[in-house]
Amino acid sequence: MSLNKIVSVVTTFLVTFLFSGTIAFANGIYSAEPEQIGFMEPATEVMRDIVEFHHGLLIMCILVSLFVLSLMIYIFIKFNAKANPTPSTTTHHTGLEVVWTTLPIIILLVIAIPSFKLLYKEDVIPESDITVKVIGNQWYWTYEYPDYDDFSFDSVMLNEEDAAAAGYPRLLGTDNHIVVPVNKTIRMIVTANDVIHSWAVPAFGVKIDGVPGKLNETWFNAEREGIYYGQCSELCGKDHGFMPIMVEVVSEEKYNAWIEMAREEYASNKTDNLTRVALNDALPAHQVKEGIAK
Ligand SMILES: [Cu+2]
Question: What is the pLDDT of residues 196-215, one digit of tens each?
Fold first, then answer.
């Protein structure tokens, strides 16, 4: 492979990696695209900051690696046995030692400051407009809207045919999903019923564990309408890979209409979750059986 070819392959890889996120944006459905290797198009300010921070770190990593590599190549050529038959016996160089101690410290500080800023931004929940409670179950999610009569519903993955019929991506579509208004701060309260799950939506930059007996909190403020997908991100059992997350971000009017609908539709859902799962015909056969068994 000629040098030119190597450079063009590496450049293509980097460009695809850094900018592939924009591909998913085109179709208005915010999930990963086939062959995508970069981030999804960010839908929140936090995710935008995460992507920016990641790119900054990547550039730093590349620069440090190139610097070390070039030093090594220089040493291999300049100081091999043939080119340098009588090696120097120097053992210390104070100036050099000061530099190789302080330089990494400076690099780490340059990384740490924006990193802590970002962590703080993710962690501290701003004044929220709507609260949604998420409960992880083996292997589906239950959502509650405590601001509106506390209605609740389960969100179970659709099988392949149903997902295709509904126009949702395979393994990501669910029978019910949460709906939230655009440009509003949503506070998510996350917990679990059985084992640890993790509620994660990449386009929002949100990933938080649902731990039984504990309430975790996170937040997002989606800037664009659309359907966003995520998946449980904590190994939680055999169907861990089959409890997707679907969030629909809509306009304020559509949200109010949905709330009206949901209040009636899910009003009776305050009772036994497992019974409802057992009755859910969208559920794969083996899960229905387990639902009844419990
Ligand atoms: Cu899970």
Answer: 999 999 999 999 999 999 99
Distance (angstroms) between ligand 1 centre and the Cα of 56 equals 32
Of 123, 152, 186, the domain-final residue: 123
CATH number of the domain that residue 35 is part of = 1.10.287.90
Are residue 173 and residue 66 in the same domain, yes or no?
Answer: no
Separation of CA 23 and ligand 1 centre (Å)? 28
Range of the domain at 43: 3-123
CA distance 160 to 171: 7
Question: Two tokens at 261?
Answer: 């609908």
Average pLDDT of the segment spanning 18-43? 65
Same-domain check for residues 107 and 142: no
Give the whole-angstrom CA distance, residue 197 versus residue 186. 20
Q: Which residues have CB under 8 Å from 131's CB, separation 6+?
A: 145, 146, 147, 186, 187, 188, 189
* CB contact at 8 A, 178 and 248: yes
d(CA 259, CA 270): 16
CATH of the domain at 182: 2.60.40.420
As residues whose CB is below 5 A from the ion ligand 1, the structure lists 197, 232, 236
User: Is pLDDT above 80 for 173?
Assistant: yes
Burial of 69 (C-beta count, 10 Å sphere; 0-12/13-18/19+) = exposed
State whether 191 and 260 are in the same domain: yes
Q: What b/e sequence results for 17-42 when a residue is b if at least 16 CB atoms lie within 10 Å of its CB, and e otherwise?
A: ebebbebbbeeebbbbbeeeebbbbb
Tens digits of residue pLDDT in 212-251: 999 999 999 999 999 999 999 999 999 999 999 999 999 9
The Cα–Cα gap between 232 and 156 comes to 12
State in Å: Cα 2 to ligand 1 middle.
Answer: 48
